[in-house]
């Protein structure tokens, strides 16, 4: 009684005391063995922090070298000529391409992933649920280069028909017009990224839907709700924040994906208004494609673009974590 | 609106495990029938077969007949969704929809079942909350979440939600087991009022409660753990508690086991 | 027994008119047939279009038919069901295609010769050669990365679970989360920026360092989960016997959770084994065998796939090799996954959740 009322009034101060009890932990660290062991494990934790700081520091340092020599505006320039004197390069095209391809991936992947997660929790024959979830788990482990190879050799040729179709009926919108050429465009990249992030979004959403309280589902059923109405009343409201954070994790993957984009896209340093015309680029793809021929300044410039990617993914992942943390508090207060 | 329930030869399974076997009984309209018996005897399972909620659990399956005024709930072409609309249910632990307000909780069933005008909806919600003896306590905060109420109030909210759709039968699965004595009393009083309008079936662990609220009592038992539960006898509550015809009933009621 | 006629008795409230059980299949077959008809008539040669048309017809058809016979609520329910099924089948398509293509094309040149020979001096557009050098490189780079990342990850997790509290533990937890989200190419750029400072040439161990950075947070997270599953009573029982804390952790806590920790490490290994981007930046690739990870460019399996594809100039021989290497890589990753999950199931703590 006492504990529960306390819980609802004020959540316990930030970090729960960890599994081991604490006072003895503090006092226990007096023996030499204990001191060494504590030192080792704490040292590892500190090392992790040092690595993170070093990543940010080194990238920022090399980036500052590059940006100081940049004759164009690093954030807004539409070109990448590190060989010129003075060099001119900017990330506008890359930022645009990264965002567009990720948005396409999300628009396709999130609804399908949510549907598959519901399929696995509420629709599939019970005997198949476990095995299918297991297979999806395994698919999440397929290396991205294999997706890239498949995308370039199998998906791209299969896109021609769809592209012609989109051009014919939706070409007037401008974003779906197609001036022939291989379909190695942002749309293909987006579709491939969607396929790649599908397993992870599905897995996390499925976990969330499974945790929706059975009691509430039964309440809806007993009122005479159909299966879909049960899902709308008793499953989706609980899963919303979980699905959002799952999508953010997927988005983080899509933003940073290198090889699948590098194999499928035929890049150019221009912004294509049509999603069907080849061209454009993403941060990661640009680094992978330009790297081998880059001079030292060229590499620093690529590192600078990598720093921007780093910051973007940090923001996206941070947002996802915050949503997850909020959800924990919420469910804790209602438990 | 209240309807009679006629069960004959009902057997329910969880996968290959037989939970209850060959149960036949009649539940009279506008009365309260209580199910008592030791834990695991299948009384809750049996209750859930009366609105086809049993088949929702993994591996749940039913044989036999349940007639609701001459219509077999398990007959061909019967839609379980409509069955559950006709046979309402209140659960062991109060389970209001936590994301909905008090008003929306009561209106939830109505919104599923048709287009109501806002004023109609308001009237029915008020009537149902009054019917559940909750109106006076919540009329000023209908838009607050239902999860903010006390346990007893939440349970009455669930009853209001169940009676808002005017079912023929109201099933209650140990509705007071998670509540304190005062809330329990409130619910028991409410049951007495509701039987004027509905056929009520209540599962309870508390024999005093069965004696207080019910007109007829059914005693369930199982011969051993793992064996299917069976209906031992059903009779007027007074007779069950004073002079049962089966020895096991008397043993259970006098506290010799269970 | 009673047929459709009896089903339509209006007096009953319990039975609405409902579609027979086989109707979804019938609608599915019908929409596929119509889609094929449209596809043939309009001369659409892409099967993807046929599939999309069939899917749309199926959903629309379900709604219209069900709405007429059963009413709007049932129709919505059926549409939701059919959408969910369509989404599942739609997603299955590329994933099945991926696995099928990799296997069917991969077995073409995958043989003992392929596994035991390097590319040597064979040009990327000619047939022949193998992936021996790539396997060596992959094993060494991933092995070294594991040797670095596994102990650090496990120790960090021990710190967080057994000792951690206060600001340090909180910030480590936070940054482990942040680290999980680092794109692999950024980890590569980090090591690269260090190499630029010291004017170093590419070598295998540089790739290992980047892979280790990617691996650490995964190991920390999974180990943490496993250590939290160890019941507190076990620790207390040991401490109460006067066993020092560090020996309690080594002799009681770790042995109890070793199965789960191993699983976590193996899954992390499987993940980094497929990473290409950092290896591309730091190890460069090499068509010859270089078994010294500390000097000179090396090859790795994922990088080999990329380079075969990139340098193929459309040559079928290069594609065949790329697929065969992809199959090898997938097989390696899948075996690791299966074994790891097997260990997890076998060694699972008996505390039912």
Characterization of this structure:
- By secondary structure, chain A is mainly alpha-helical.
- Chain A has helices at residues 2-9, 22-28, 32-69, 92-123, 126-139, 144-170, 186-210, 214-222, 227-256, 259-264, 283-290, 296-334; strands at residues 80-81, 88-89.
- Chain A has 12 helices and 2 strands, in the order H-H-H-E-E-H-H-H-H-H-H-H-H-H.
- The relative contact order of chain A is 0.13.
- Mean pLDDT of chain A is 86; it is low at 1-17 and 330-335.
- Chain B is an alpha/beta fold and 258 residues long.
- Chain B is built from 10 helices and 10 strands.
- Chain B has a 6-stranded mixed β-sheet with strand order 6-7-8-3-9-10, with helices on both faces. A 4-stranded antiparallel β-sheet of chain B has the order 2-1-4-5, covered by helices on one side.
- The mean pLDDT of chain B is 91.
- In chain C, 73% of the residues lie in helices and 0% in strands.
The number of helical elements of chain A comes to 12
Q: Termini distance of chain C?
A: 46 Å
Largest protein interface?
A-C, 102 and 110 residues
Q: Percent of residues of chain A in beta strands?
A: under 5%
Mean model confidence by pLDDT of chain A = 86
Strand content of chain C: under 5%
Widest β-sheet, arrangement of strands of chain A: 1-2
Secondary-structure content class of chain C:
mainly alpha
Output the structural class of chain A.
mainly alpha
Rg value of chain A? 25 Å
Main sheet properties of chain C: none
Order of helices and strands of chain C: HHHHHHHHHHHHHH
Features:
heterotrimer; B: 258 residues; alpha/beta; six-stranded mixed β-sheet; C: 353 residues; mainly alpha
Short account of what is shown:
The complex is a heterotrimer of chains A (335), B (258) and C (353). Chain B has helices spanning 43-49, 80-86, 102-113, 118-131, 135-138, 151-164, 181-194, 207-213, 237-242, 247-253; strands at 5-14, 17-27, 32-36, 60-68, 71-72, 87-90, 169-173, 199-203, 216-222, 229-236. With 258 residues, chain B is α/β, with parallel strands linked by helices.
Question: What's the topology here?
Answer:
The complex is a heterotrimer of chains A (335), B (258) and C (353).
Chain A lengths: L1 H8 L12 H7 L3 H38 L10 E2 L6 E2 L2 H32 L2 H14 L4 H27 L15 H25 L3 H9 L4 H30 L2 H6 L18 H8 L5 H39 L1
Antiparallel strand pairs in A: 1-2
Chain B lengths: L4 E10 L2 E11 L4 E5 L6 H7 L10 E9 L2 E2 L7 H7 E4 L11 H12 L4 H14 L3 H4 L12 H14 L4 E5 L7 H14 L4 E5 L3 H7 L2 E7 L6 E8 H6 L4 H7 L5
Parallel strand pairs in B: 3-8, 3-9, 6-7, 7-8
Antiparallel strand pairs in B: 1-2, 1-4, 4-5, 9-10
Helix pairs in contact in B: 3-4, 3-6, 4-6, 6-7
Chain C lengths: L3 H4 L15 H20 L4 H23 L2 H35 L5 H5 L15 H32 L2 H15 L3 H14 L6 H26 L2 H9 L4 H29 L3 H6 L18 H10 L5 H31 L7
Helix pairs in contact in C: 2-3, 3-4, 4-14, 6-9, 6-11, 6-13, 7-9, 8-9, 9-11, 10-11, 11-14, 13-14
């Amino acid at each position: 009684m006492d504990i529960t009322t306390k819980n609802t009034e004020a959540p316990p101060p930030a970090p729960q005391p960890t599994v081991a009890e604490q006072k003895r932990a503090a006092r226990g660290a007096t023996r030499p063995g204990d001191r060494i062991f504590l030192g080792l494990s704490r040292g590892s934790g500190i090392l992790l922090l040092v690595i993170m700081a070093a990543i940010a520091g080194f990238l920022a340092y090399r980036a500052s070298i590059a940006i100081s020599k940049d004759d164009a505006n690093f954030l807004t320039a539409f070109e990448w000529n590190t060989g010129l004197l003075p060099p001119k390069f900017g990330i506008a095209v890359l930022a645009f391409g990264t965002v567009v391809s990720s948005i396409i991936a999300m628009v396709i992947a999130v609804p399908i992933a949510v549907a598959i997660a519901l399929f696995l929790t509420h629709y599939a024959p019970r005997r198949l649920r476990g095995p299918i979830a297991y297979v999806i788990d395994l698919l999440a482990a397929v290396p991205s280069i294999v997706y890239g190879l498949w995308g370039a050799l199998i998906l791209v040729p299969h896109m021609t028909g769809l592209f012609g179709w989109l051009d014919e009926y939706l070409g007037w919108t401008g974003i779906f017009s197609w001036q022939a050429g291989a379909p190695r465009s942002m749309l293909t990249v987006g579709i491939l990224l969607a396929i790649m992030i599908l397993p992870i979004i599905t897995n996390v959403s499925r976990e969330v839907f499974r945790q929706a309280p059975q009691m509430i589902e039964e309440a809806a059923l007993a009122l005479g709700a159909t299966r879909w109405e049960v899902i709308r009343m008793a499953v989706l409201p609980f899963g919303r924040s979980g699905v959002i954070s799952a999508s953010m994790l997927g988005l983080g993957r899509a933003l940073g994906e290198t090889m699948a984009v590098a194999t499928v896209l035929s890049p150019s340093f221009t912004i294509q208004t049509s999603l069907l015309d080849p061209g454009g680029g993403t941060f990661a793809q640009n680094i992978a494609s330009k790297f081998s021929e880059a001079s030292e300044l060229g590499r620093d410039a690529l590192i600078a673009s990598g720093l921007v990617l780093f910051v973007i993914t940090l923001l996206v992942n941070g947002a996802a974590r915050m949503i997850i943390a909020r959800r924990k508090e919420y469910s804790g207060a209602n438990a | 609106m209240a309807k009679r329930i006629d069960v004959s030869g009902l057997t329910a399974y969880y996968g290959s495990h037989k939970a209850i076997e060959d149960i036949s009984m009649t539940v009279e309209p506008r009365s309260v029938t209580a199910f008592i018996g030791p834990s695991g005897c299948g009384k809750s399972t049996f209750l859930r077969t009366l609105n086809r909620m049993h088949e929702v659990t993994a591996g749940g399956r039913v044989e036999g007949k349940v007639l609701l005024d001459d219509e077999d709930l398990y007959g061909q072409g019967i839609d379980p969704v409509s069955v559950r609309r006709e046979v309402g249910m209140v659960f062991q632990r109060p389970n209001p929809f936590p994301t909905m307000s008090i008003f929306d909780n009561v209106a939830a069933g109505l919104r599923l079942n048709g287009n109501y005008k806002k004023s109609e909806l308001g009237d029915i919600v008020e009537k149902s909350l009054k019917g559940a003896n909750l109106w006076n306590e919540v009329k000023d905060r209908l838009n607050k979440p239902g999860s903010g109420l006390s346990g007893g109030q939440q349970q009455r909210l669930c009853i209001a939600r169940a009676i808002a759709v005017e079912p023929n039968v109201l099933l209650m699965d140990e509705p007071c087991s998670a509540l304190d004595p005062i809330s329990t009393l409130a619910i028991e009083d409410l049951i007495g009022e509701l039987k004027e309008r509905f056929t009520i079936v209540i599962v309870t662990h508390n024999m005093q409660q069965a004696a207080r609220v019910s007109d007829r009592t059914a005693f369930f038992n199982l011969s051993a753990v793992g064996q299917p539960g069976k209906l031992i006898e059903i009779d007027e509550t007074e007779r069950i508690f004073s002079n049962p015809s089966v020895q096991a009933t008397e043993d259970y009621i006098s506290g010799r086991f269970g | 027994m009673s047929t459709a006629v009896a089903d339509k008795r209006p007096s009953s409230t319990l039975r609405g008119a409902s579609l027979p059980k086989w109707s979804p299949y019938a609608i599915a077959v019908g929409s596929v047939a119509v889609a094929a008809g449209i596809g043939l008539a309009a001369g659409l040669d892409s099967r993807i279009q046929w599939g999309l048309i069939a899917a749309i017809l199926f959903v629309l058809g379900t709604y219209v038919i069900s709405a007429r016979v059963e009413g709007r609520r049932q129709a919505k329910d059926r549409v939701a069901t059919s959408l969910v099924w369509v989404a599942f089948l739609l997603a299955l398509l590329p994933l099945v295609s991926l696995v099928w293509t990799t296997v069917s094309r991969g077995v073409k040149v995958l043989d003992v010769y392929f596994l035991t020979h390097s590319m040597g001096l064979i040009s990327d557009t000619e047939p022949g050669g193998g992936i021996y050098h790539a396997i060596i490189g992959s094993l060494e780079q991933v092995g070294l990365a594991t040797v670095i990342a596994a102990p650090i990850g496990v120790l960090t997790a021990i710190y967080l679970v057994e000792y951690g509290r206060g600001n340090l533990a909180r910030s480590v937890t936070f940054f482990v989360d942040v680290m999980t989200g680092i794109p692999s190419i950024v980890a590569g750029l980090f090591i690269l920026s260090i190499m630029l400072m010291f004017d170093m040439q590419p070598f295998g161990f540089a790739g290992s360092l980047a892979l280790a950075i990617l691996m650490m947070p995964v190991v920390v997270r999974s180990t943490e989960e496993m250590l939290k599953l160890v019941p507190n009573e076990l620790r207390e029982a040991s401490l109460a016997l006067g066993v020092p804390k560090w020996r309690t952790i080594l002799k009681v806590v770790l042995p109890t959770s070793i199965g789960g920790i191993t699983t976590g490490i193996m899954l992390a290994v499987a993940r980094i084994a497929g990473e290409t981007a950092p290896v591309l930046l730091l190890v460069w690739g090499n068509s010859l065998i270089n078994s010294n990870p500390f000097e000179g460019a090396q090859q790795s399996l994922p990088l080999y796939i990329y380079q075969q594809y990139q340098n193929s100039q459309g040559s079928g021989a290069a594609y065949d090799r790329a697929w065969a290497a992809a199959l090898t890589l997938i097989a390696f990753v899948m075996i690791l996954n299966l074994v790891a999950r097997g260990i997890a199931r076998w060694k699972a703590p008996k505390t039912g959740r």
